[in-house]
Write a structure and sequence with these properties.
two-stranded antiparallel ribbon; elongated
Amino acid sequence: YWFCGGANCPDFEKKNLHYNGSDDVKYVLKRTSMFDECPCFKNASISINEVLPSKNELRTEVDYAKQRQEKIISRINQLNETAEKVVDEMVYMSEKNNKSSESGCFITTATLRTIGGKDDGYELNQFRTFRDTYLREQLDGKELITQYYKIAPQIVEKIDNSHAPQITYENIWKDYLSICLKFIENKEYAKCKECYINMVKTLKASFIEENMET
């Protein structure tokens, strides 16, 4: 910005105003206010309000920034929820695709096949309904299902390669799964969950952790 260099200079000296912030602008304008009677200064002067934003303008900018931040955070949360649903669906579809595979066979399926049950029979459908309508909706349900998908095929493989898989599966049915089924039929879902967790822990200790130690 240009301003008058003195009241007595007919061809006033032009000086370039370099400023790095509001303090420089306020200082120059205050100092040059003595030249109010100088026509050239009046023509060249700039109001401080034209240089610096007002408080209302600053407040508006801050409010806008906060709104943008809130929208971004909300969008991130939505994306996280969508990602979780996609992952859950992928895990669920993976289980469905693998349930008929011998190498990916799950404990309940393997047990029921051994004692004469069918893949689309009453018992398996009851357990699948329990998993999808009750367990999946619990706070720790998704994590339990994910852990089960990881460990169950390993347990089945170890049982199948053991010296008496038929007896082991019959005991699993008698000691755990038949009891779980009664809990489901009586809508005692929490008891079924506890019983199933105990079954998996026991089998893991017997067939996975025991083999790791030996």
